[in-house]
Design brief:
The chain is of the alpha+beta class and about 325 residues long. It is about 50% helix and about 15% strand. The longest helix is centred in the middle third of the chain and has 24 residues.
Length: about 325
Amino acid sequence: MNTDTIGPLTPRIVAENLREMGYQGKLHFCENYCYVQTATNGLTLFIYFINPDGDLDVKEDEVCGAVRFYGGWDRLSRFDARHLTDLLDWFNREHRFCKVYRSDNGDGPCLRVEAEWMTLDGISVRSFHRMAHCFFDLYQVLRNRLDELPSIASETIRQRHNEAVRCAHGPAADEAHAIELYRANADVGYAGSQNNLGDLYERGKGVTQNLAYAVYWYTRAAERGEPTAYLSLAEILYVAGRNGDTAIWLDAGKYALLASAYLPEGHNKSTAQRIVEKLETLLPEDAWACAVELAKTFSPLFQETAILSDTPTLPASSEGLSIGLH
């Protein structure tokens, strides 16, 4: 095959070329058009096809007039807006092959990267490979620079969380602003805000009540070592498992044991201990032993340093679970 021969370009040919280059090349079909999904270095990218009239209405074997590579990142609230603007200005000045722009999808600032080539007169395989490699390389350059940007300081995140608490519970209540602040912090991985956002969804306070969303945010907070989220998950799963689902009760037991071990003395710890006592009675002996083992081997993906329970000392690993989990 002569890679310099000029030929028509179709979505199917693009997918085949990407696979020949060693990349993923998966065709996705929509009602009136199709696109190709690919990836490089763990980054997912999309390729769209434009017909001679400028529309996306191109089927898998139809010749396209242009091809558009597209990718980006969502939920970039952890970065200062000025730093993102400086990054865009630098990239668009230094790398004219692609364009980068900022948008907002409702969940915070986003970056979008695009490169488009006219292919109405055909394109050679060699040229397509060269353009694809160029886009992938520049996409990685942008990713590297994005990783180097300083995140918003931890103190700023804590201040934003405290302001959200005041807006939610203070004398000058502003639920909408509280939710906005919680979301911004939750998107950057702050466990306290993730937990509180889950609580709002569980109670339907300021948002449409949605238990699935509540569990999602409680789970994200638990992954970051928030003991209050352990208790929230234990309570929800305990109720959900009453239909006899042992698997759900195993998870309820795991989180109840974690909450009982890590929460300070008080109402929440007592609640966790009551759930532990109930599940230890309700579950078969081997199932309860499994729940205990799950709790002992649990380790957060990241241990948040500022937690809602204000525990004076919090074990950084499962070693601290040896007491009380027999």
